[in-house]
Amino acid sequence: MLAPAVPAMLAMPAVLAVLAVLAVLAVLAVLAGCAARPATTAASSIECGTFVLDQGEEMPASAATCLIKAAHVGEPAHLSVTRPTIEGDPIVVAYLTRTDGRIAVATDTRQDAFGPKGITWEVCTGPTAGAHGIEFAACTPSS
Fold this sequence. Notes:
The chain is an alpha+beta fold. The protein has one domain (5-142). Helix content is 28%, strand content 33%. It has helices at 5-10, 12-32, 61-73, and strands at residues 46-52, 77-84, 90-97, 103-108, 119-125, 128-130, 133-135, 138-142. It has a 6-stranded mixed β-sheet, sandwiched between helices. It has a two-stranded antiparallel ribbon with strand order 6-7. The N and C termini lie far apart (34 Å). Mean pLDDT is 79; it is low at 1-42.
């Protein structure tokens, strides 16, 4: 079940996760601005959703469809998905479409007690809706 917006936001780990997502989206917005068209502001981008999922819960298919459609037409859009690890630690993945149809993906594992702590960035192509969210034909690391 999707976590209730207000009570989830009051929990400190959730607040940190949201702040991390906002920071990542800001960086991705700057990277997306390097495309051929002028950069757009976050206020003019399509909001495909912010989801905090429980163990075994999947992102709504409509969120993947929203992001994929925006990427195909070169419209700016963003999506944030927080999934728990096996131990319950939140992993935040932020997606931001670029005007060239590619999607910038930032994965924040800093709250994972048993995994590598950091943020990784990739630029991906060929998005499709998969069994567990968005899948890509290819991704390359981005700095």
